[in-house]
Amino acid sequence: xxxxxxxxxxxxxxxxxxxxxxxxxxxxxxxxxxxxxxxxxxxxxxxxxxxxxxxxxxxxxxxxxxxxxxxxxxxxxxxxxxxxxxxxxxxxxxxxxxxxxxxxxxxxxxxxxxxxxxxxxxxxxxxxxxxxxxxxxxxxxxxxxxxxxxxxxxxxxxxxxxxxxxxxxxxxxxxxxxxxxxxxxxxxxxxxxxxxxxxxxxxxxxxxxxxxxxxxxxxxxxxxxxxxxxxxxxxxxxxxxxxxxxxxxxxxxxxxxxxxxxxxxxxxxxxxxxxxxxxxxxxxxxxxxxxxxxxxxxxxxxxxxxxxxxxxxxxxxxxxxxxxxxxxxxxxxxxxxxxxxxxxxxxxxxxxxxxxxxxxxxxxxxxxxxxxxxxxxxxxxxx
Length: 383
Ligand SMILES: [Zn+2]
Ligand SMILES: [Zn+2]
What we know:
- By secondary structure, this protein is α+β, with helices and mostly antiparallel strands.
- The chain contains 9 helices and 15 strands.
- The protein has helices at 9-13, 21-35, 44-60, 63-72, 110-124, 149-154, 292-297, 356-368, 377-381; strands spanning 141-147, 156-167, 176-182, 191-196, 199-204, 213-217, 226-237, 246-249, 265-271, 278-280, 283-291, 299-305, 308-314, 323-326, 342-349.
- Strands 10-11-15-14 form a 4-stranded mixed sheet.
- Strand 4 (191-196) and strand 5 (199-204) form a beta hairpin.
- The protein is elongated, with a radius of gyration of 38 Å.
- One zinc ion binds next to loops.
């Protein structure tokens, strides 16, 4: 049964065609509160409007039905549209049997059933919905932390002081204290009637914001349910973290509203440079001075690594600038623990020319092994 003469579902709910599921839910809840038959006893117009809203929500809250509606301009299924309780649009006493409401239209939709329950628990459950915002996950926070080379290599536990929004202890994050009072202006209905000529309108009650309840805002948090809080926390820095790396501390971002999950804390890691080791990725670079005899004759020398002293063989005839690789003597990867390498750059250090014997030895060297290391330079330079 194609439905004609029906208002556009999107228009009914006052949302755009691009509205998200959440937008639709929010719009529906707001309108349903206004036109709920219990709050408008005897008001046939409100009752009819409420049913239309139900129908619109039933379709638009179900992604499959919504898609069909968007394509065809209507939605129908085998379930009679009056399937939510009383006889449709007849009789004077339409019985809205809320307990028996199958809001999902039998389609097993998680959104439908759940939000319907929410809607009515917020009506009758005394939580005073409407004053409260929807539960929202807390925002993530980012802080900078500066650590030294060794903490980055070995990992460390660091204390850091942060300021975050924490759930208010006074009101347990609800933003309100005490038992909600029935709003005396609207007597708990959330709406009041206004007359314009012969017409009567139901408008949301200003005093209680349409919730029907008056709540005492928590003084500690001013009703927000969260308070700014300075905290010193211990943060575990994993071994191998690099300069510019990020460390996530779950749940230490801002608290969510209405008891929703907190965000995470992210630490932007700055690793201070080290005097001897230069780190590039997980590899380490270091310059090692050797003497002329060591470089000429070859030698076994000790060099510093992050594991302590390591024996390195300098091959005979090693020039300044030559780089030796010490396999897997680099930093362990923060991801999988695999170690980088250490590169050792040889720097030949000449003997002091102040000693006469040294000078004589050098003269003798010149005679024994005359060399012109620059002979090809001029050709190369083209000058
Ligand atoms: Zn009120
Ligand atoms: Zn509070």
